[in-house]
Every structure is written in C-alpha cells, then in structure tokens.
Amino acid sequence: YLSIKIEMLTIIKWLSVNKLSLNIDKTKILVFDKANFSVKIQLSGGYAIKECKCFKYLGLMVDSQLKFDKHIDYVKKKIQKRIGAMYRGSSLLPIKYRKMFANS
Length: 104
Description:
The chain contains three helices and five strands. The strands form two sheets. A three-stranded mixed β-sheet has the order 1-3-2, with no helix packed on it. A two-stranded antiparallel sheet has the order 4-5. It has 104 residues and is α+β, with helices and mostly antiparallel strands. It is elongated and about 60 Å long. Helix content is 43%, strand content 16%. It starts with a helix and ends with a helix. The longest helix is centred in the last third of the chain and has 20 residues.
C-alpha cells in the first residue's frame, strides 16, 4: 500500500501545480483484493483518505471483490419501490399514465 500513498502524493502535487484542489470528503479509495482489512492513507496537512469496500460509479455498485451482489440488491430495491407505487396507484391512474410511469 506504500505505492498507493506515493501515487496519491503525486496526484496531490499535480493538482496543486495546476491550481486545482482535491475534495477529501468525497475522495475514497477502492482496492480490488480479497483481504478484509481496511486501509487509511494519511496525507500531509492532517488529511486522510479512507478505503471503501463498495461505491456507486455510473449507476453500477462496484465492490472490492468485483461481485455484483450489492448491485443486484440495489436494483431489486429500486424495482420493488416502483412496483409498489404502480400497484397502489393502479386504481387511481388511467392506463395511459401507468404506462408512462412504467416506461420512465
């Protein structure tokens, strides 16, 4: 993990040279491995970048082991909410609006 820290310091140096900033609150690191320990990279200025095991990237839930269990659960929850709303609104909405809701 030393090489990750070196690369992060290189990135931060590049950002400062180009007058850009890194939002530490939104910055996470994802290491693709099977180990169950977490990494916390300490940077200069008291900043720390934490490792996350799963995050959402372009609508896809990516985890550290490249499994799709969390993504499937995420999509399943979204679908269950829509199906429940369609069922509850089936007696209230005309078929035209129900079709629009299903296709959105």
